[in-house]
Design a protein that fits this description.
Strand content: 5-15%
Radius of gyration: 18 Å
CATH architecture: 3-Layer(aba) Sandwich
Number of domains: 1
Bound molecules: nicotinamide-adenine-dinucleotide
Strand order of the largest sheet: 3-2-1-4-5-6-7
Number of strands: 7
Distance between the termini: 51 Å
Length: 270
């Protein structure tokens, strides 16, 4: 049996879901990355004090030089088991370009950069959202979402998003799912997998910020959830932990919903 411990890299590792994923994967060496040094240092310190084998490096995922530094850092430390991509922003930032660049364009930059480190049984887990499933398939914007780096893609998607950053968020998360289909064959040739996970409402700083902006919508979503509660970061992290494990060895190029069942009820309402 191969007992080599392989690396788990978590982007957005200082955030609610990212940090919970790191905790759920405690038996492997963890590399935390997030936007600022302060956030990374604080998270590494916390997890190390809880007994985790953890290191970290700051990386603005929209900056190609930072991504290169991250890849070199990971490459020097060992072999890649999982790249868990939990960095992202909600529509609350009120900036369509920022939502598009951080959530979608940077996701493709990272998929391509991490490919350098991919070996047999590596896996990429990309955080999408239940909201992605509210955007139907469409030839024109799906082409743009699948090719986020193309010059015209942002303008095409913005037009469909009606200049609304919350709707842009939903589009970018559909794009994340489309990227798993785009790259599954390439990763599969190395025996590696690429999967997205779509949380419902999860009580993290991101969701609490959204709750302040749209309190009625958040209450409606809770009432429409069959389990009558919001999700906790651990609900998502446990699903991610399963997807990283060998038990999920035949799961790739797909999306896993972790939403307490709310999506089906939202669909019935519209
Ligand atoms: N919380 C929810 O209800 C929910 C629901 C559906 C999907 N999601 C998705 O799950 C993921 C994690 O969300 P969360 O709730 O933990 O949010 P969070 O705000 O707690 O964490 C997100 C992290 O991303 C980091 N980040 C933002 N921009 C960055 C950049 N340019 N470079 C590097 N890091 C950057 C932030 O610093 C933060 O630590 C996100 O992709 C989010 O869209 C969350």
């Amino acid at each position: 049996m191969n007992t080599e411990k392989k690396l788990i890299v978590v982007t957005g590792g200082a955030g609610g879901i990212g940090q919970a994923c790191a905790r759920a994967l405690k038996d492997q060496p963890i590399i935390i990355t997030d936007y600022s040094h302060e956030m990374v240092d604080e998270t590494v310190e916390t997890l190390a004090s809880e007994g985790f084998d953890v290191t970290g490096i700051a990386c603005d995922i929209t900056d190609k030089k930072d991504i290169e530094k991250l890849i070199n850092y990971v490459g020097r430390r060992g072999s890649l088991k999982a790249f868990i991509h939990a960095a992202g922003v909600s529509g609350a930032v009120n900036d369509l370009k920022k939502v598009y660049t951080i959530n979608l364009l940077a996701t493709e930059l990272l998929i391509n950069a991490f490919y350098e480190l991919v070996v047999k049984d590596s896996v990429a887990i990309l955080l999408s959202s239940m909201k992605a499933h509210t955007i139907p398939a469409n030839k024109e914007y799906d082409e743009a979402l699948t090719n986020p780096q193309a010059l015209e893609s942002f303008d095409i998607v913005s037009r469909f998003a009606n200049k609304d950053s919350d709707i842009m968020y939903n589009f970018t998360k559909r794009g994340v799912q489309l990227l798993t289909h785009k790259y599954a064959d390439k990763w599969g040739e190395r025996g590696a997998r690429i999967v997205s996970v779509s949380p419902g409402v999860i009580e993290t700083p991101m969701a609490l910020k959204a709750a302040k902006e749209h309190p009625e919508e958040m209450e409606m979503l809770k009432q429409a959830t069959p389990l009558k509660r919001n999700g906790q970061p651990e609900d998502v992290a446990d699903a991610v932990s399963f997807l990283v494990s060998d038990a999920a060895r035949f799961i790739t190029s797909t999306d896993i919903l972790v939403d307490g069942g709310v999506l089906q009820n939202i669909k019935k309402m519209t």
